[in-house]
């Protein structure tokens, strides 16, 4: 769990390192070059610059050869097909055997110009058993330029890929300990996984790394119902209410 959260935090810093040239640059006629943030610019008179060492400089414009400022790229939302691969954890009760199972999802969506996107996804969940979730994915991007906050909803069905659920129960046996309920000797039995419904609403943001690659981060609520059965008469439902933490890479 701790290593996964560290990886999430590390990947969220990637856009910061992927965007060079964030500083204003003042080129002086004496050959000096100063980098920092322009606090005031009065064309024809002076420029005030705060350098990266927190010193503040004021230059008359007759001392300045040229000024370069970073271009703020505002990438509009692009319509068309994209592929998104998300991975993360479904954090829950620390007393549970699987307190933060790993989740992986690959989504194929179509982006519309109005900010909506829709498609289908398939992935894997690692609980006590391994599941193959198949979902419909819906997203709405609140902004159309720059960093893109979004709301999303995934809903579908988890298909079990194998494994049994071990249930412990106590039976009443008057012949073993008369007058005592329950029988102090527990009984265990394995019941097979049969899959179940899932829904995962979330909020997040998308940060563009390049024209065709973006980084996403999402946090939400994940509800999963896993069904088990031994025969037609014996059935069991186990509900999981989890906090979903996911990061993803989007390719267009």
Describe this structure in words.
- This protein is mostly beta strands and 252 residues long.
- The strands form two sheets. Strands 6-7-8-9-10-12-13-14 form an eight-stranded antiparallel barrel. Strands 4-3-2-1-5 form a five-stranded antiparallel beta sheet, with no helix packed on it.
- It contains two helices and 14 strands.
- A hairpin with a 3-residue loop joins strand 8 and strand 9 (130-141).
- It folds into two domains: 17-68, Roll (SH3 type barrels); 78-251, Porin (Beta Barrel), CATH 2.40.160.20.
- It is elongated, with a radius of gyration of 28 Å.
Q: Can you tell me the overall shape?
A: elongated
Helix content: under 10%
Q: Write down the domain tally.
A: 2
Low-confidence stretches: 5-20
Contiguous helical run count: 2
Strand % is: over 45%
Q: Which class of the largest domain in CATH terms?
A: Mainly Beta
Q: How are strands sequenced across the largest beta sheet?
A: 6-7-8-9-10-12-13-14
Mean pLDDT equals 81
Biggest beta-sheet profile = 8 strands, antiparallel, barrel
Estimated radius of gyration: 28 Å
Write the element-wise H/E pattern from the N-terminal end onward. HHEEEEEEEEEEEEEE
Named CATH architecture of the largest domain: Beta Barrel
How many beta-strand elements? 14
N-to-C CA distance: 31 Å
Q: What structural category characterises the helix and strand content?
A: mainly beta
